[in-house]
């Protein structure tokens, strides 16, 4: 009986915490909610893209790591972004580069095993500072900074743009471009459509009956799989809005 009571109590506590977390998320969303005349935030109006944005920029960084303690600072070593049409959900362009770490240029064996990125792939590649300049040029060339064109980054979780990029930019004393300051966490979009929390990319793929393609923890492959989740949610009628800010 005592064991049963403890199990029930634990279940009630877990349910309560989940509800509180959801309430905090909704309160934050309302505080940051876009006005009806701000298309870059995915507001719905006459003539707007059917799923909220002209383009979705699917992003998934890989960074230096170790199985005991992550290097300090942790540094981006793969920087991939897919430009996905908000109407067809086809990938129209790709920005992809490996990045040379400034502080700890030698990758750990664990990092290579996890990501598939070997030392030769980062040696001689641009620094993060140069990569951000190159990426800004790509954004301009792709028309993504053109007035009237709405776009938003899409990540699997908030780590990439809330923690990883800001922390490294802070260490290097360089600014975070303003277009990185809001994004869609695909886990939250998945939850809104399905009614179940998106615990991770592999689980979301499985539950949406999508076969995983490529290598997990390869940044570019993860982007392609996230883009497939995005497209399937759109097929199920999702209208996407910004979920996360910094």
Summarize the structure.
With 246 residues, the protein is of the alpha/beta class. Helix content is 42%, strand content 15%. Strands 1, 2, 3, 4, 5, 6 and 7 form a 7-stranded mixed β-sheet that branches.
Main features:
246 residues, 7-stranded mixed sheet, 8 helices, disordered N terminus
User: How does the helix and strand content classify structurally?
Assistant: alpha/beta
Regions with little confidence, pLDDT below 50 for 5+ residues: 1-43
Calculate the mean pLDDT score and round it. 86
What proportion strand?
5-15%
The radius of gyration is: 19 Å
Counted by DSSP, the helix tally is: 8
Q: Largest sheet at a glance?
A: 7 strands, mixed
How many DSSP-defined strands? 7
Assign an overall shape: globular
């Amino acid at each position: 009986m005592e064991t049963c009571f403890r199990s029930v109590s634990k279940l009630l506590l877990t349910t309560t915490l989940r509800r509180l977390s959801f309430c905090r998320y909704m309160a934050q969303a309302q505080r940051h909610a876009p006005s009806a005349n701000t298309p870059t935030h995915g507001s719905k109006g006459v003539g707007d893209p059917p799923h909220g944005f002209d383009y979705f920029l699917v992003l998934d960084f890989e960074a230096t790591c170790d199985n005991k303690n992550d290097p300090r600072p942790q540094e981006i070593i793969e920087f991939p972004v897919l430009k996905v049409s908000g109407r067809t959900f086809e990938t129209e362009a790709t920005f992809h580069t490996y990045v040379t770490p400034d502080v700890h240029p030698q990758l750990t064996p664990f990092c290579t095993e996890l990501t598939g990125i070997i030392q030769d792939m980062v040696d001689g590649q641009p620094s993060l500072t140069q990569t951000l300049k190159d990426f800004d040029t790509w954004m301009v060339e792709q028309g993504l900074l053109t007035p009237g064109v709405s776009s938003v980054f899409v990540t699997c979780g908030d780590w990439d743009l809330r923690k990883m990029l800001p922390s490294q930019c802070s260490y290097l004393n360089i600014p975070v471009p303003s277009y990185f300051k809001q994004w869609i966490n695909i886990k939250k979009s998945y939850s809104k459509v399905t009614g179940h929390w998106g615990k991770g990319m592999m689980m979301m793929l499985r539950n949406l009956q999508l076969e995983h393609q490529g290598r997990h923890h390869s940044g570019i492959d993860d982007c392609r799989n996230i883009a497939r989740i995005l497209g399937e949610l759109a097929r199920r009628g999702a209208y996407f809005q910004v979920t996360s800010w910094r």
